[in-house]
Structure formats: structure tokens, C-alpha cells
Request: fold
Amino acid sequence: MSDKVVEAVRDLVPVIRERADEAEQARRIPDATIRELTETGLFRMLQPARYGGLEADPVAFYTAVREIGAACGSTAWVASVLGVHPWQMGLFPVQAQDEVWGQNPDARISSSYAPTGQVTKVEGGYRINGRWNFSSGCDHADWAFLGGLVPGADGQIVDAGTFVLPRADYRVDDVWDTVGLRGTGSNDIVVEDAFVPEHRMLSWARTSVCDCPGHEVNTAPLYKLPFAAVFTTTISSPIVGMAQGAMDAYIKATRERIRASYGGQKVAEDPHAQVRIATAASDIDAAWLLMERNIAELMECAKAGAEFPLKLRLRTRRDQVLATQRAIRAVDLLFENAGGRALKNGNAVQRLWRDAHSGRVHAANDPERALELYGKGALGLDVQDVMI
Reply:
């Protein structure tokens, strides 16, 4: 079934590409695109089967995201983020899952994980206040995941986790106006004294050790995967797609491009341009194949009910962050050689260049932190980090 979803997404790609400028100008994904992606089954791929989800292989989900990224970076970013949240929702207590999907199995969830708001423990749950930034696709969401720190009576942090709130408990502040990923509508979530019951909070400590309340009802191997691996690959997959889209657009334009300053030379016959294509293509392939391999190996461990080796978890994080780095290098190689026409608004190469670089600044793509962890592990040193 997941193969059919990927094919349906591929069929939709030309339309998504045509709407890329519309998404940029509106600073949000067109409603028609969200509706059509919903009809493909994309947002059901990682959803638990008990709510009509497909419980698909995550590699198939990331493949669909990559395909979208080649057409429109903003659409791929939103599709990836909104599409992965059903997986995380499947880790919450069943009561929370029922509240989100019981009446509407197609309910979508946006997120803002940085704990920038205030959380107060009260009887039966928590009081939430504050502002959370960068909630991609929030205009198309019915619920929001918000990160928060829980202080004890003495003010010291005693817990931290993800809180899920319905749309009625927050407002969206339209602040998103950026150089890239303009169409993601990554606006602010503002909460004013909302009550969140205990069952709608998932502790980060539980997710980091792959022991969550939702495992009682969602027993498929998919839900045993490490949160860090699933989440960070969700961020890199669209960027690899953007690099492929820039490659496709560059090759198409280069076939017809003429350099007047070099006596009318056809750029397609320039060996330096040919070398750039080869180098960029290799980086894009390496980025994707290493991520694909690691997610597949994690799934094999989950299916076997085995522990996830630290070496594999570290390698997954290493290759994910380097996938983004490789994609950025590929896009830069192509953009540098794309000529003055690539600077025009509406040109796919410059748009995907801007989108890829904007995605690069996400915290999940901080290379030094991730690579340091791998290096420590390789040297036999102690490694402690929630993002592995």
C-alpha cells in the first residue's frame, strides 16, 4: 500500500511544482495541495492502523517527501513535518490518541518543540502559557505539539516533554516572512492559560529510551524506533529532495544555455560544468543512500525486538547531518554555475537554493554537535545526548 502512496505523490509532483511560486507569495501551502496530499494517503503513512493509518515503512514515507522536495521545498518541509507527527502521536497514551483522532482520523498536528513557554504543574495536568516559534504548517493543523519544561516546587526542572493542545487552546500569530522556505507558514503559536491534562503530555525521558505509553496499543515495530532518528531524518529528507530538484532544473537549463562572454560557447559542452554535475549528483546519492540504509537497519532491529546498538544510533545521526551538508554542497555547486538568469524570481534553482539553505539552519542539522557524538563513540568515550 505504501508503494501506491509514493506513486500517487509522484503523480501530484507536477502540480506541486506549478504551485511553488504561489506558496512563496502566500507564505503558506495552498489548501488545494494539502487536500490533494491528504487524498494520496501521505499523512496516513506513519499513523497507527487502529485509526486507519498505514503503519508504512518509514523509508517509503521519506521517499515520498524527497519526491515532493524536488518540486517545492516548502511543500516538502510541511509534508514531512505534518506527516511524521502521527508517528509521535502514536507514542502518547491511548486516551490522548482517541481525543485527537477519535472524531477525525485526518486531524493534523503541527509542532514547536523548543521549550520557550511556561509550564506549571496543577492538579490533573498542567497550565501552559507563552509563545512558541517556527510551527511549520500550523495553518493546516487541528492540534499542536509544544515542548515544555516542568518545574518543581523549588523551581528546579523535574520533567520535560511534548504537550499536545487542540486548536481552540491557542492562536496562530502570522510572523513568517523569510528568505527561504517562505511557503511553510512557520508561524508562532501563542497560548494563554490553557489546561493540558496529564495524558496529553509525553515525557522526553520516555521517548529517548523508546518506552512510551502508546506502545501498549501500537505494537508495530515502526513505533519502537528511536525518536531522534525519525525526527532528524524528517528534517533532512526534504533538503535532499531540494538538491535533486535543483539538479534537475540546472540540467534542463544548461542543455540550452549559451555563454556570450565565451564566444557563444554551449555551457553543456563545458567540462567544468560537467564535473560539477557529476560531483553534485554523487553528493545527493550519498546523502540519500546512507540515510536509507540506516533507517532500514533500525527497522530490522525493531522487527527483531532487539536493542538498537549505540553504534547504529550514532551512525544514523552522523549520516543524517552529513546528508544535509552534502545536499547543501551539491546545491551550491550548481547555483554557482547557473548563470545570471538563475537569479530571477520564479527560477527553480535559486528558489531551491534558498529553501535548502533555510532548512540547513534547523537545529537538527548542526553538524559539529552530531559529529562530536560519533567521534566520542568511536573513541570509546561516554556518549549522552537525547538526540541519538
About this structure: The chain is about 50% helix and 15% strand. The mean pLDDT is 96. The first helix runs from residue 2 to 18. Residues 2-105 form a domain with the Butyryl-Coa Dehydrogenase, subunit A; domain 1 fold (CATH 1.10.540.10).
